[in-house]
Every structure is written in C-alpha cells, then in structure tokens.
Design goal:
181 residues; mainly beta; Pnp Oxidase, Chain A; seven-stranded antiparallel sheet; globular
C-alpha cells in the first residue's frame, strides 16, 4: 500500500524543477503555464462589414451550465480582437487532430485565414470550421478586462460534436495527440 507523505515547508529540490516568482523572467511563467495540456480552438465571428474573423485560442473553459456559459481569452493586440469582442455572436471551434494546419493559419497574421479553410455560416451567422471536433455557437454575454487579454463570455445557443474524432492538443509549446494504451 502506498503512503501519502505531507511536507511542511518547501518541496524537495530537484535539478529539473524550475520556479517562477513575481518579478522573475516571464518566459519561466509561460513555460509553467504550458505544463497544463489544453485543447486548441479557433474563435470566429463576422466583423461589422460581414468579413469573417478568427483566431487560434487555447484559453477556453466552461463557466456555467445554467445558464450555459463559456469563456475564451482574446489577446488585445490580436488583429481580429475588435471583431471578436464586438460581434453579437461568435463560435468556438474545438479542433481535432487533423486540423493542426488551421490552428497554425489562424495563429498568424495571415490576411486570408478563411481562404483555404473550409467553413460555412452557423445559425447565428458566425463562421463554423468544417470537420471540427465540436462547435459552440454563442451569443456575447459579457466582455471583461483581463490584463493583456479580453475575457469574452458567451452564452451557448447551440453545441455540436463528432464523437468519432480525437482532439488537437497543445502542451509545452507543441501540438500533441492523445496516446491510448
């Protein structure tokens, strides 16, 4: 039987352990945050003139089931930030492992992100990427300040998913895939 040991004070030092403290190198904090494996999404909307806008985002989470709310964090300096936070409706496209090229395309400042990405309009008009693992079509519920990001909260009006697909994952700065025993 295994024994649980509680440590009082600092954990034992290990040469592989790195540490961030307030005021330290921000790269160390970013590396620590990168230890949390995430899914990869592309958040999409139409800008005021009807031009599709989208951005790769991995800061995505469920907030509430009643009402059905989720949130995504949009970097304030992103080219599509104003379109995404200003739209009345947006979609969160959760990517599957074959959509790594779309993730990369939507993470750059490519002018025509939608040109080579198959998509259609969802029920509320937000662009829906074809073959996504799941799609959450949302009405904008709130936008909050989050430092260098906008926290965009959406009320889910429709959700769809494909049970046969596996997610595209991001861990320690690299794309990953699920590995089953």
């Amino acid at each position: 039987m295994s024994e649980l040991r509680l440590y009082s004070g600092a954990m034992p030092s290990d040469a592989r352990t790195r540490e961030y403290r307030s005021g330290s190198d921000p790269r160390t904090l970013r590396d620590a945050l990168g230890c949390f494996a995430t899914g990869v999404t592309v958040v999409t909307a139409h800008s005021a003139p009807g031009v599709p806008a989208g951005l790769t985002v991995n800061s995505f989470t469920s907030v509430s089931l009643d009402p059905p709310l989720l949130l995504v964090c949009i970097h304030k300096q992103a080219a599509s930030a104003d379109a995404l936070i200003g739209a009345s409706h947006f979609a969160v496209n959760v990517l599957q492992n074959a959509q790594q090229p779309a993730s990369m395309r939507f993470s750059t400042r490519d002018e025509d992100r939608f040109g080579t990405t198959p998509w259609s309009c969802g029920e509320a008009g937000a662009p829906i990427l074809k073959d996504s693992l799941s799609v959450f079509e949302c009405e904008r519920f709130a936008v909050y300040d989050g430092g260098d990001h906008h926290i965009l909260v959406g009320q889910v009006v429709k959700a769809s998913f494909d049970e046969s697909l596996d997610p595209l994952l991001f861990f320690r700065g690299r794309y990953r895939r699920l590995h089953f025993d």
